[in-house]
Amino acid sequence: MPTMQEWEVLVVEDELDGQEVVEGILEVFGVACDHVTTAEEGLSRLNDYDYTVVVCDLHLPNMDGIDFIEVVRDNPALQDIPCIAVTAYHTTEVKQQALDAGFDAYLPKPLDDTSFVRELERIVNRG
Fold it and tell me: In terms of pTM, does the model score above 0.70?
Protein backbone atom coordinates (compact mmCIF):
# COMPACT_ATOMS: atom_id res chain seq x y z
CA MET A 1 0.00 0.00 0.00
CA PRO A 2 1.37 3.40 -0.91
CA THR A 3 1.92 5.97 1.81
CA MET A 4 -0.02 9.21 1.56
CA GLN A 5 3.08 10.96 0.29
CA GLU A 6 3.15 8.50 -2.64
CA TRP A 7 -0.45 9.17 -3.63
CA GLU A 8 -1.49 11.02 -6.76
CA VAL A 9 -4.98 12.48 -6.41
CA LEU A 10 -7.11 13.76 -9.26
CA VAL A 11 -9.52 16.49 -8.18
CA VAL A 12 -12.46 17.07 -10.54
CA GLU A 13 -13.97 20.35 -9.36
CA ASP A 14 -15.22 23.34 -11.35
CA GLU A 15 -15.28 25.85 -8.48
CA LEU A 16 -11.96 27.48 -7.59
CA ASP A 17 -12.83 27.58 -3.87
CA GLY A 18 -13.58 23.85 -3.88
CA GLN A 19 -10.29 23.10 -5.64
CA GLU A 20 -8.35 25.20 -3.17
CA VAL A 21 -9.96 23.54 -0.14
CA VAL A 22 -9.20 20.00 -1.34
CA GLU A 23 -5.70 20.88 -2.48
CA GLY A 24 -5.00 22.73 0.78
CA ILE A 25 -6.02 19.74 2.89
CA LEU A 26 -3.96 17.36 0.76
CA GLU A 27 -0.93 19.68 0.82
CA VAL A 28 -0.85 19.57 4.63
CA PHE A 29 -0.43 15.78 4.39
CA GLY A 30 2.15 15.93 1.60
CA VAL A 31 -0.22 14.49 -1.00
CA ALA A 32 0.30 15.42 -4.66
CA CYS A 33 -2.75 16.33 -6.69
CA ASP A 34 -3.83 17.48 -10.12
CA HIS A 35 -7.09 19.23 -10.80
CA VAL A 36 -9.41 19.62 -13.73
CA THR A 37 -12.62 21.58 -14.04
CA THR A 38 -14.81 19.19 -16.05
CA ALA A 39 -15.70 15.52 -15.98
CA GLU A 40 -14.55 15.20 -19.58
CA GLU A 41 -11.09 16.49 -18.65
CA GLY A 42 -11.09 14.10 -15.70
CA LEU A 43 -11.81 11.11 -17.94
CA SER A 44 -9.05 12.18 -20.31
CA ARG A 45 -6.55 12.45 -17.43
CA LEU A 46 -7.58 9.05 -16.08
CA ASN A 47 -6.89 7.51 -19.47
CA ASP A 48 -3.42 9.09 -19.57
CA TYR A 49 -2.23 8.82 -15.97
CA ASP A 50 -2.39 6.33 -13.10
CA TYR A 51 -3.97 8.14 -10.14
CA THR A 52 -4.33 6.67 -6.66
CA VAL A 53 -7.76 8.17 -6.01
CA VAL A 54 -10.25 10.62 -7.53
CA VAL A 55 -12.19 13.31 -5.68
CA CYS A 56 -15.12 14.45 -7.81
CA ASP A 57 -17.72 17.15 -7.30
CA LEU A 58 -21.20 16.02 -8.27
CA HIS A 59 -22.31 19.32 -9.84
CA LEU A 60 -20.13 19.93 -12.88
CA PRO A 61 -20.82 21.66 -16.19
CA ASN A 62 -22.03 19.43 -19.06
CA MET A 63 -21.31 15.94 -17.69
CA ASP A 64 -22.06 15.73 -13.96
CA GLY A 65 -20.35 13.59 -11.34
CA ILE A 66 -22.89 10.77 -11.62
CA ASP A 67 -22.31 10.49 -15.38
CA PHE A 68 -18.55 10.66 -14.72
CA ILE A 69 -18.54 7.74 -12.27
CA GLU A 70 -20.74 5.64 -14.53
CA VAL A 71 -18.22 6.03 -17.37
CA VAL A 72 -15.34 5.23 -14.99
CA ARG A 73 -17.03 2.10 -13.63
CA ASP A 74 -17.93 0.91 -17.17
CA ASN A 75 -14.29 1.11 -18.30
CA PRO A 76 -12.34 -2.06 -17.35
CA ALA A 77 -9.08 -0.09 -17.24
CA LEU A 78 -10.50 2.42 -14.75
CA GLN A 79 -13.25 0.59 -12.88
CA ASP A 80 -11.19 -0.16 -9.77
CA ILE A 81 -9.88 3.34 -9.07
CA PRO A 82 -11.20 4.62 -5.73
CA CYS A 83 -13.51 7.63 -6.16
CA ILE A 84 -15.02 10.00 -3.60
CA ALA A 85 -18.01 12.20 -4.38
CA VAL A 86 -18.23 15.64 -2.80
CA THR A 87 -21.08 18.12 -3.04
CA ALA A 88 -22.49 21.26 -1.48
CA TYR A 89 -26.01 20.09 -2.35
CA HIS A 90 -26.23 17.37 0.28
CA THR A 91 -29.34 15.30 0.86
CA THR A 92 -29.69 11.65 1.83
CA GLU A 93 -31.11 11.01 -1.66
CA VAL A 94 -28.08 12.57 -3.37
CA LYS A 95 -25.75 10.55 -1.15
CA GLN A 96 -27.55 7.30 -2.00
CA GLN A 97 -27.59 8.15 -5.70
CA ALA A 98 -23.83 8.78 -5.67
CA LEU A 99 -23.06 5.54 -3.83
CA ASP A 100 -25.44 3.54 -6.03
CA ALA A 101 -23.81 4.99 -9.16
CA GLY A 102 -20.42 3.66 -8.05
CA PHE A 103 -18.66 6.16 -5.82
CA ASP A 104 -16.74 4.51 -2.99
CA ALA A 105 -17.50 7.30 -0.56
CA TYR A 106 -19.50 10.51 -0.29
CA LEU A 107 -18.76 13.65 1.69
CA PRO A 108 -20.83 16.83 1.96
CA LYS A 109 -19.23 20.26 1.70
CA PRO A 110 -17.85 22.02 3.54
CA LEU A 111 -15.30 19.27 3.96
CA ASP A 112 -14.07 18.40 7.42
CA ASP A 113 -10.29 17.98 7.10
CA THR A 114 -10.03 14.96 9.40
CA SER A 115 -13.05 13.12 7.97
CA PHE A 116 -11.89 13.79 4.42
CA VAL A 117 -8.39 12.41 4.99
CA ARG A 118 -9.68 9.40 6.94
CA GLU A 119 -12.11 8.58 4.13
CA LEU A 120 -9.33 8.85 1.55
CA GLU A 121 -7.14 6.52 3.62
CA ARG A 122 -10.00 4.06 4.06
CA ILE A 123 -10.79 3.71 0.39
CA VAL A 124 -7.17 3.74 -0.81
CA ASN A 125 -6.14 1.07 1.71
CA ARG A 126 -9.21 -1.14 1.36
CA GLY A 127 -7.62 -3.37 -1.26
Answer: yes
